[in-house]
Amino acid sequence: MYSRVEELNSRRIPLAKMQAVIIGLRCLFVPHESHIRRQAMCLQSDLTLHIIWHSHCRVWRDKNDFLHIMNNTSKLEASNLQQLLTALQRSGYTTVGPILRDDAIVYDKLDSVNDLPVGWSDEQSPANYRLTKQSGASYFNFNAAPQSWKRFLYPPVRKLFTIRKDGKSLGISNENTDDMKYAFVGVRPCELSAILIQDEVFQAGKYRDDAYSAARRNLFIVAVNCTTAGGTCFCSSMKTGPEAKNNFDISLTEVLRDGRHFFIVKAGTELGASVMDLVETSAASPQEVATADAIMRQTESRITKKMETDGLPALLAENLEHPHWDDVAKRCLTCGNCTMVCPTCFCSTVEDTTDLSGQNAERFRRWDSCFTVDFSKVAGGNFRMSTKSRYRQWLTHKLSSWVDQFGVSGCVGCGRCITWCPVGIDLTAEVQAIRGTETQQRKGD
Amino acid sequence: MTEFAPQTEELLHGYMIPSLATVRRIVWETDDTFTLLLDTTQMNDSPYSFMPGQFNMIYAFGTGESAVSISSDPAKPGLLGHTIHRVGSVTSSLSRLKRGSLVGLRGPFGSAWPLEEAVGKDICIAAGGIGLAPLRPIIYSLVRKRELYGRIVILYGARSPLDLLYRVELEQWNKLPNTEVIVTVDRGDSTWKGHIGVVTNLFSYIKLDSESTIAMVCGPEVMMKYTVEELQRRGLSQERIFVSMERNMKCGIGLCGHCQFGPKFICKDGPVFRLNEVYQLTEKKEL
Predict the structure, then answer these.
(1) Which of A31, A54, A71 is the last residue of a domain?
(2) What is chain A's pLDDT, residue by residue, as a tens digit (445 residues)?
(3) pTM listed for this prediction
(4) Are B132 and B267 part of one and the same domain?
(5) Is the ipTM of this complex over 0.85?
(6) B208 Cβ contact partners less than 8 Å away, ≥ 6 residues apart
(7) Cα(B139)–Cα(B153) distance, rounded to whole angstroms?
(8) How far is CA A420 from the centre of its chain?
(9) Does a structural domain hold residue A120?
């Protein structure tokens, strides 16, 4: 495999063989030097190559028909992690990431690596979240915390406009769109999928959320692969984790073993590669890469929660009258916690205020939840009065009608709704209950 | 003196910032229902135009915003009518506005009645209560080019004679060739000599050619449910029946999530649906 790259460097290769090499690269293990651009002349100018991203290298053709092969895997010593934050800050980014607050890990401004929850992990199960102290000084050995990144791209409260009354005239001034340049440090693979899902919601349709797009355009994503599996995680069922394959600028896999502490770093974009150029890294040995891969496999094997997704959208759409909805309704408190912690839930309401003079008014957009009574209220009545109808709306939207609306499931398997449900309702169990009895009914037919 | 928001391309894509329209007049149709007539010619994204069946989000200063169907003639978009039932704080604020006041206006949003598909067909319009308001624009369009369409039947039910909207126009439409307007009320009064009962009763007075008729229905959900059942019983396929639906709406553009009806967003996929798109959903309670 190695020789093929050498071959590309040294010789002119006919088109057919070139394509074969490119295809071969998908399983190629590239040499260890990081950020070395190798070039090979493309013999045929009409050879159209798209950038091929591989977990260890990427290949693209430039405008001069040079073929570039770039190793994008390197090793960052844990003691140099601060350099990455500094590089991002110097590049104009506001770095946000996990910090400890209120007995939980939350996302907030990150000034230095000392703000990270060093040595902390968490224990999660339905209706239970506890921090646990660990012996090692790991930076990212925990799972999805109550907050998700949506609070930065789609803030809980956003002022839409200010309006002033002056005699009969009204003057509207809209709020400037937030042009924050965020670097998210520590985006879990499931959360990365959630960001892509919200991209569909807010940016793909006829009407777009301009503030979201502005924040998203400027966003730098440092993904962190999961080295531990939480008790409510089911990302492997939703095919979103525990390893991020693409759509990040940089991904990190933390390795803390045998007294060594480092990150395997992959650059996912040119921007990511350029930031990594500012950070002291070294070549990752095949053993080190293999150790990181083994940790990934171990994490995956430790994910015990599963959700069978085959035919799930149709299953739920066909079972809107299933008796199990009444069963969930007996437990659900309609508190809306699940919608607040969900990284993809996007419902909002608007709120109007005036000052005491009555001359100045403001309009805000706030997160809303389909579990509130007012959510579906109209002048003539309320479409969803019962708990059953509101829980059903949430779950069927998330797992079924979301697919009709946006082409993807609205669930990424982060497990937050299970952990943060005060009565521990577990959507994977509810789905299984419906699936189980549905199958029985079919068998009985 | 009005400072308008700078209309950069970015903001136009936002759709959450209203334009300002001027109140021309408020016409009280009944004790609690009024038509707000807005002058759109001075709006900063003028000229304004809309299709029959679409709605606007109307903002009352400091109070809030309501989704309101347009009830006026699409051929005269400069003077925009919204027939509003005064029930909550926003509609009460709007009802108190005077000539020359400004309101915020976003729109038009949503789908339209099938005007082109109706050419050459018989038309059956069934309305309950304020459901006549979103149907009035299509009636204007139909009668403006009356010769393009077959027989037009308008069935309309209201709670009482005093709750009937657009009485003068109902009588005018009834006088048009090959056009019939039949009205019923739930409760009559001493002056009422017309029909008493629900809208569906009126079907016994008309003949529908199920092969050439297009039906358009708007009213309370229970009225629509029985009306579309009656239409289907009379042989109309679901593809020939159109309904306009209502849900809570905060944005009008499919982003706030409030108006979801199964996989549909009433605001952007509707409010006007061909019945076969939503029929199965209408059979589910509290969806």
Answers:
(1) A71
(2) 233 333 343 334 444 444 444 444 433 333 333 323 333 333 333 333 333 444 445 555 555 555 555 567 899 999 999 999 999 999 999 999 999 999 999 999 999 999 999 999 999 999 999 999 998 899 999 999 999 999 999 999 999 999 999 888 898 887 766 678 999 999 999 999 999 999 999 998 888 888 898 899 999 999 999 999 999 999 999 999 899 988 999 999 999 998 999 999 998 888 998 899 899 998 888 899 999 999 999 999 999 999 999 999 999 999 999 999 999 999 999 999 999 999 999 999 999 999 999 999 999 999 999 999 999 988 878 899 999 999 999 999 999 999 999 999 999 999 999 999 999 999 999 999 999 886 555 544 4
(3) 0.87
(4) yes
(5) yes
(6) B122, B124, B153, B231, B234, B235, B236
(7) 10
(8) 18
(9) yes
Selected residue of B17, B96, B279 to mutate for chain A interface (largest A Cβ count, 10 A): B17
Nearest-CB residue to B1 (from A169, A321, A404): A169
> Which residues fall within 8 angstroms of residue A186, CB to CB, at 6 or more apart?
A97, A98, A107, A116, A140, A222, A224
Identify whether residues B128 and B96 lie together within a single domain.
no
Domain span at A412: 312-347+368-444
By CB atoms closer than 10 A (0-12, 13-18, 19+), residue A81 is buried
In a domain, B131, yes or no: yes
Same domain? For B92 and B63 the reply is yes
Task: Give the residue-averaged pLDDT of B74-91.
Answer: 94
CB contact at 8 A, B56 and B90: no
* A393 with B87: Cβ contact below 8 A: no
Cβ distance of A352 and B65 shorter than 8 Å: yes
Interface test with A, best of B260, B268, B280 (most A CBs within 10 A): B260
> Does B117 fall in a domain?
no
Residues A147 and A12 in one domain: no
- Tell me which residue range forms the domain holding B18: 9-109
Residues B44 and B154 in one domain: no
Amino acid at A344: T
Residues B84, B153 within the same domain: no
Residues from chain A contacting residue B100 (CB–CB below 8 Å):
168
Q: Is B114 part of a structural domain of the chain?
A: no
Cβ of residue B220 closer than 8 Å to a chain A Cβ: yes
Does A208 lie in the same domain as A125? Answer: yes
- CA separation for the pair B205, B126 (Å, rounded): 13
Neighboring chain B residues of A211 at a CB cutoff of 8 Å: 14
Residue found under tokens 């038309």: B123
Same domain, A109 and A182: yes
B95 shares its domain with B179: no
Regarding whether A184 and A324 lie in a shared domain, the answer is: no
Looking at the fold, whether A283 and A330 belong to one and the same domain comes out as: no
The structural domain count of chain B equals: 2
CB nearest B250 (choices: A205, A350, A353): A350
**Could you write out the DSSP letters of every residue in A261-308?**
EEEEEEE-SHHHHHHHTTS--BPPPHHHHHHHHHHHHHHHHT------
- CATH code assigned at B203: 3.40.50.80
Asked if A67 and A207 sit in the same domain, the reply is no
Q: Are A71 and A57 in contact (CB under 8 A)?
A: yes
Q: Rounded to 5, what percent of chain A is helix, strand, coil?
A: 35, 25, 40
Distances (CA, A) of B254 to A68, A200, A345, A378: 43, 12, 14, 17
In angstroms, the CA B114 to CA A38 distance is: 60
Q: Same domain, yes or no, for B138 and B82?
A: no
pLDDT in tens, B182-237: 999 999 999 999 999 999 999 999 999 999 999 999 999 999 999 999 999 999 99
Q: 3-class SS at A330?
A: helix
Residues A410 and A385 both lie in one domain: yes
pLDDT digits (tens, 9 = 90+) for B83-131: 999 999 999 999 999 999 999 999 999 999 999 999 999 999 999 999 9
